[in-house]
Protein: Probable 6-phosphogluconolactonase
Organism: Iris pallida
Amino acid sequence: MAAAAAAANAATSVKKKEKSSLLVFDSEEDLSVALAKYTAELSGRFADERGAFSVVVSGGSLIKSLRKLVEGPYAESVEWGKWHVFWVDERVVPKDHPDSNYKLAYDAFLSKVPIPPGHVYAINDSLPAEGAADDYETCLKQLVKTGTVQQSAATGFPKFDLMLLGMGPDGHVASLFPGHPLLQEKERWVTFIKDSPKPPSDRITFTFPVINSSANIALVATGAGKAGVVHQVFGDEHTMSELLPVQMVALEDGELTWFADKAAASKVQDKANL
Ligand SMILES: O=C1O[C@H](COP(=O)(O)O)[C@@H](O)[C@H](O)[C@H]1O
């Protein structure tokens, strides 16, 4: 059974919209269990099919929701040696800084499983934002050449096996914020921002063409603070307002699955009676 279909079986309710599904779980704990199972299934499939699994993570609350993946049975059964880990966005701070997305993932996740250190692609934190974005893009281009990261035949952009993404209460994904000109970037794989409305100001981020070339995306929304955005995406009312960044996540040739807890889906449930 496909990973998303198995996760849907564990959800309390499922709502489909265009090319995405919203899975709603009774609690963040249940969501975390289903997210671990979904990720482990995809890991097994890609490790078998192509001998590698390229995984992109965001920062923020998503990392806490990955906690079940580093516990039994997955801690033992996942082929961690085949994982290659990337960040969809990173704050331009030293790796041991409390704002670092690398540090967040390392402390809660990466330090607990045997992923080879050479398979963990953190940014070069000695460079300013522009240089760090160039450096990360060069690294990705090399990994696409060697086949560690696949390339989308449809778009020419890298095609990551799985992106595990959070989103902000304002609807931002990665470091792509509402109304920012970076939302329109069409050429670059990785770019930089020096005026992030959410501190810290200097960050690097994947662009939408890369995000939207993924094979699978899990978009994770937990807590009441995300309810307005989940409603804007999955509610049945049609507003004419400008699309939020999270509404611009639209896979060219892949599967987009939203994982939400009851609190994050509360406004959709009220209105749509899932
Ligand atoms: O600044 C960031 O925020 C978003 C959302 O974080 P959350 O704590 O509201 O879930 C995160 O996805 C992104 O990676 C991070 O840099």
Notes: The longest strand covers residues 255-261. The helical segments are 3-10, 28-50, 74-77, 101-108, 129-146, 208-211, 227-234, 266-272.
